[in-house]
Amino acid sequence: MNQEQLEAVMGLIIHSGNAKSDAMEAITAAKEGNFEQADQQVKQAEEAIVEAHHAQTSMLTNEAQGNAAEITLLTIHSQDHLMTAIAFCDLTKEIIELHKRIASAIT
């Protein structure tokens, strides 16, 4: 794996991990009733997903140009991280919405 491929793979892992962490912080904020903070954390998670997609697009572009990345456990792990982060962020939005509904029903 060359340096450019390694950077793309690591970008996927880092940005996906950041997205998942931001999403978890959003759930925690929503549980505490801090919906403004929850919404901000979701926004940050979405921005991290965009950055991860940029890294993935770089890998896809290289492959389309005939420079496919070596398939290693690291490349598979990076793609798995992205898919998990996307699913986690989607579920986070639903969890926050549930917390908002519960909070509004109580007040």
UniProtKB/TrEMBL annotation:
Cited CDD domains: PTS_IIA_lac
Annotated Pfam families: PTS_IIA
Domain of life the protein comes from: Bacteria
Listed InterPro entries: PTS_IIA_lac/cel (IPR003188), PTS_IIA_lac/cel_sf (IPR036542)
Coiled coil regions, renumbered to chain: 28-55
Keywords carried by this UniProt record: Coiled coil, Phosphotransferase system, Sugar transport, Transferase, Transport
Modified residues (Phosphohistidine): H77
Name of the molecule in the record: Cellobiose-specific PTS system IIA component
Highest classification ranks of the organism: Bacteria, Bacillati, Bacillota, Bacilli, Lactobacillales
